[in-house]
UniProtKB/TrEMBL annotation:
Similarity field: Belongs to the PhyH family.
Pfam families reported in the protein's UniProt record: PhyH
The organism's place on the tree of life at top rank: Eukaryota
Cofactor: Fe cation; L-ascorbate; ATP
Protein name: Phytanoyl-CoA dioxygenase, peroxisomal
Enzyme class: oxidoreductase
Gene Ontology CC annotations of this record: peroxisome
């Protein structure tokens, strides 16, 4: 489990108490939270994308804090496939569930409809004055005139989306913590790719740095870091 604090608070003089927590990531070892990933109400739709051999690959409980005044509560527009060294993209899907009403005031998801049919693009840290959270890379060039859809969701509503869909989320202008839970699933028939020489090299470097620190080892491959956190949800574990 990785507990992340908002960069505006982590990099300030404030004592980083629980009010600073922006995300709990990789909760696959926590049974109460991991139960979400195997809920039949969720898995019945996931299966339509992954087929019967279902792995959970990336888990997050996102606790978007009230913005500390630096707009760091925003999540830049990105494609999730940037983070994943496995393919094919069409066998990967995210389930994202609102844990309370989420709208533009507390920073709902924003999506660019139709972009899931495009290609994976170059991602980098956006040049935001107030700083950017660790590994919150943004898609470098996309057509800003493309229509945006703001997803207003009620508590319990779930959206399923493709890893090439360009999406992000807005600033939390309220005093409350905006909570959502999500899991990225992939078919265990997916295969790992070598991201050397691709646009994903920059995120590989960061993930490996974090994994070396977390596991206290001297060497680790990106594939091994992902194999360590993947969990079988249903069916048979094949490649991933
Ligand atoms: C489909 C996937 C989409 C996504 O998931 S996008 C986001 C993915 N983000 C991640 O995976 C981030 C994973 N988390 C992390 O890397 C770590 O938790 C993180 C943020 C570096 C904190 O590391 P820890 O070692 O636990 O904490 P620490 O308090 O000792 O801080 C170490 C240095 O990191 C800094 N830090 C903490 N939170 C940060 C933040 N949110 N953004 C940027 N920098 C941050 C902290 O100030 C410290 O820096 P320094 O060494 O003092 O210069
Ligand atoms: O929950 C959010 O604010 C956005 C999450 C997201 O887009 C992601 O982590 O990939």
């Amino acid at each position: 489990m990785v507990v992340m604090r908002d960069v505006a608070i982590a990099k300030s003089e404030f004592v980083p108490d629980q009010k600073a927590i922006t995300k709990v990531q990789d909760f696959q070892e926590l049974p109460e939270l991991f139960e979400y990933c195997s809920l039949p109400q969720i898995v019945q739709y996931v299966k339509c994308f992954t087929g019967p051999n279902i792995m959970s690959m990336h888990t997050m409980l996102i606790n978007k804090p009230p913005d500390a005044g630096k707009k760091t509560s925003r999540h830049p527009m990105h494609q999730d496939l940037h983070y994943f060294p496995f393919r094919p993209a069409d066998r990967i899907v995210c389930a994202w569930t609102a844990m309370e009403r989420i709208d533009r005031s507390n920073g709902c998801l924003v999506v660019l409809p139709g972009t899931h049919t495009g290609e994976l693009k170059q991602h980098d840290y956006p040049e935001w004055e107030g700083g950017v959270n660790k590994m919150y890379h943004g898609v470098r060039d996309y057509d800003p005139s493309l229509p945006r859809v703001h997803l207003t969701m009620e508590k319990g509503d779930t959206v399923f989306f493709h890893p090439i869909l360009i999406h992000g989320s807005g600033m939390n202008r309220t005093a409350g913590f905006r909570k959502a839970i999500s899991c990225h699933y992939a078919s265990s028939d997916c295969y790992y790719i070598d991201v050397k020489g691709t646009t994903q090299e920059n995120i590989e470097k960061e993930v490996i740095e974090l994994a070396l620190k977390r596991y206290g080892v001297e060497e680790i491959l990106l594939k091994d870091a992902w194999m360590a956190k993947g969990r079988l949800v249903q069916g048979e574990r094949i490649n991933l």
